[in-house]
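Input.
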Amino acid sequence: MDHRPYSPSHNVQKFLKLFVKIKKKGVQVYETLYIVSKLYQIAAAIYAIMHRVTSAIILMALASAFSPLFSSLQPYPKLFYAFAQTRENAALSLSDLIKQGAPHQGNTSAPVTLIDFSDLQCYLCDRFVKATEPQINSTYVQSGKVAFIYLHLPNRGFDSFPAASAAQCTNDQGKFWQYHSLLYNSQGPIDSGWANRDNLKKFASEIPGLNLQKFNSCFDSQQHKRDVEADVALAHSLGFTQTPSFIIVKNDGSNPQKLEGPQPFPEFKFLLDKELGGS
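Output.
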């Protein structure tokens, strides 16, 4: 056995000897090197495939071993989602919204409900109220096809929440829509003072037949604070953060279709007709 210390020159000498042998046999060096390189590529490819196969086998084994744990983290998934869907439908059903004191227009047995999340200080909401809502009302609400629900999403300014609370106090006396129209017709720049507490009471005093003493008691005691907060929570649960935002549903709250912004009447018509067609 050769016990001489290793030297890089040994590899050079071996290569030269190999070169001489190859040349003696009449094989061109470049052809030999080409063949060697191809064999190397094939070997590398086989190694890569084996590595992937081995990794896949390991992952499958791990998945099989931990599948009971994964299953335990998802108990009764179908039952859970069915329950969640039922809860969402109930929150949007026409009968439940009316029971909770939501201002509404139209036939309470209408097959379709249009829910409007708005802010009384919102100028885009004002655009919808004046340009699109009258067409929806005359085409669908008055005909009994669609019920219209107003819910509060007071996020435009500091005076928006008190305005929503005041509007709910007028709803207690069946005067919401008069107050709603009065505020939108009197709308000024956000938080400019036009909707401060004193002016909100002043607007209420201009509504014929409204008991002002009852209104002031309701407003000053923040009687509808939780109701407005519930509207906001429902809007957020639906992914709404801007006003106006709308959702069109069946009477029972199912099959929701969302629409955001003061869209023109044809956009509402398309979705309402679609919902009515499936009734």
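The chain has two domains: 10-62, 89-277.
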